[in-house]
From TrEMBL:
SMART domains: Alpha_L_fucos. Keywords: Glycoprotein, Glycosidase, Hydrolase, Lipid metabolism, Lysosome, Signal. It is found in: Lysosome. This is Alpha-L-fucosidase. The keyword Glycoprotein applies. Belongs to the glycosyl hydrolase 29 family. GO terms for molecular function: alpha-L-fucosidase activity. GO terms for cellular component: lysosome. The record marks 289 as: May be important for catalysis. It comes from Coregonus suidteri. The keyword Hydrolase applies.
């Protein structure tokens, strides 16, 4: 606690003592300085991540956006959740009572890490704390409302972090909600018009600092910020400390959810909004978070297979995101007992199988000068050094397949990543383009999508 208090005090003086970056100088506690920090290279190269929503909300596991169950039940008093509780629980049942059934008895972090590694993902973002305020680690600022004092009686964050870090090339990140729906200190600050900051300095910031110092996450996925400005959250002061003096200052990545008005404007990479789907190439590094369950981020006991993304849809969505320079963060919601639904596992392993064949076109790639074209089948482009990848989201119906965008040369070579050692015949068109003679038989694809590797094209 003494270390945390000292760090928090230091946050308050960053705006005064820090100077603009350059030549080894420090980042100042203002957005101009914070936004000038280069994004650590590992994040852009990773491309694919797994998002994990898990908490007390996984116990009722009910309704659209089940991770908001407490709010729907007691805040908005939505009919579905109110009716569910009346039908299945006694009148005096409290949300806190669900924590006793959040036992995580089948949670095996090594099994989770095996699945995430098999998915082809290069980073994992795990829920440290959602808007309900329950901490999945032994937070000293959340007595009896954390995973060690009640429920699982184990450090879920620490256990998963250790398992993830056994896998070479797999990075560990943490999701943290700044606000909590029903915390009395937050409600008190809110009633003041956010002129007071008791919740920030007694709860939100101490927990963030504790997570950084204890687990050293490589990514902080901030959320729950939108009701108050960044000045209430002291966001720039925290980020200045994070970038200047924290143990993860050289490699940590953050998103853009640091206060009302920050989305798509300030921070590290941009989330902008859930399931962000730009229509053209953004001018800043971005990420799309997308849940396999189209109706929820947390687990739903009443989910139906028709409500889940199938593997071809996941592949298409991922390819689109990467071609437009984004990262793809695919979400699952584990069950309250720590099991990952076989349906989710099947999707993740299928994605990994596709990436096992075609990952060369995804990892460490860059957007090409043209991101897509309307050929006889949908085509998206990525590039890496002097190689261009044309990702076909359907197999052409004819043996001759035309691409209009590439400009050929005498050094041009075309192959399909399913069998990259075999060159395909092609002829050029003018002024740009080429016609490829496709294989007689369609290669088997783990999902949907085949990649033509184009070398020696401009």
């Amino acid at each position: 606690m003494a270390t945390t208090t000292l760090i928090l005090r230091s946050l308050l003086v960053f705006a005064v003592v820090a100077i603009s970056p350059g030549n080894g100088a420090r980042y100042a506690a203002n957005w101009t300085s914070i936004d000038s920090r280069p994004l650590p290279v590992w994040y852009d190269e990773a491309k694919i991540g797994i998002f994990v929503h898990w908490g007390v909300f996984s116990v009722p596991g009910y309704g659209q956006f089940s991770e908001w169950f407490w709010y729907w039940w007691k805040g908005a008093q939505r009919a579905a959740e109110v009716g569910f509780m009346k039908k299945n629980y006694p009148p005096d049942f409290k949300y806190a009572d669900f924590a006793h059934d959040f036992k995580a008895q089948f949670f095996d972090p090594d099994e989770w890490a095996d699945i995430f590694e098999a998915s082809g993902a290069k980073y994992v973002v795990f829920t440290a704390k959602h808007h309900e305020g329950f901490c999945n680690w032994p937070s000293a600022d959340s007595w009896n409302w954390n995973s060690v004092d009640t429920g699982p009686h184990r450090d879920l964050v620490g256990d998963l972090a250790a398992a993830i870090r056994k896998r070479k090339g797999l990075h560990f990140g943490l999701y943290h909600s700044l606000y909590e729906w029903f915390h009395p200190l937050y409600l008190k600050d809110k009633a003041s018009g956010f002129k007071t900051q008791e919740f920030v300095f007694r709860k939100a910031l101490p927990e963030l600092v504790n997570l950084v110092m204890t687990y050293e996450p490589e990514l902080i996925w901030s959320d729950g910020d939108w009701e108050a400005p960044d000045t209430y959250w002291n966001s720039t002061e925290f980020l200045a400390w994070l970038y200047n003096d924290s143990p993860i200052k050289d490699f940590v990545v953050v998103n853009d959810r640091w206060g009302n008005g920050c989305y798509c404007k300030h921070g590290g990479y941009y989330n902008c909004e859930d399931r962000f789907t730009p229509g053209s190439l953004p001018g800043h590094k971005w990420e799309k978070c997308q849940s396999i369950d189209n109706r929820s981020w947390g687990y739903r006991r009443n989910m139906k297979i028709i409500e889940l993304m199938d593997l071809p849809t996941i592949i298409e969505d991922m390819v689109y995101v990467v071609a437009l320079g984004g990262n793809y963060l695919l979400n699952i919601g584990p069950m309250e007992d720590g099991m990952i639904s076989p349906l989710f596992e099947e999707r993740l392993r299928g994605m990994g199988a596709w990436l096992g064949v075609n990952g060369e076109a995804i990892y460490s790639s860059k957007p090409w000068r043209i991101q897509t074209e309307n050929a006889t089948v949908p085509v998206w482009y990525t590039s890496k050094n002097n190689t261009v990848y044309a990702i076909l989201l359907a197999w052409p119906s004819k043996l001759l397949f035309s691409l209009a965008a590439p400009k050929t040369s005498e050094a041009t070579n075309v192959a399909i990543l399913d069998n990259p050692s075999v060159s395909l015949k092609w002829v050029s068109t003018t002024p740009t383009g080429l016609v490829v003679v496709m294989p007689d038989n369609m290669p088997v694809s783990p999902g949907r999508g085949w990649v033509l590797k184009l070398e020696g094209v401009e």
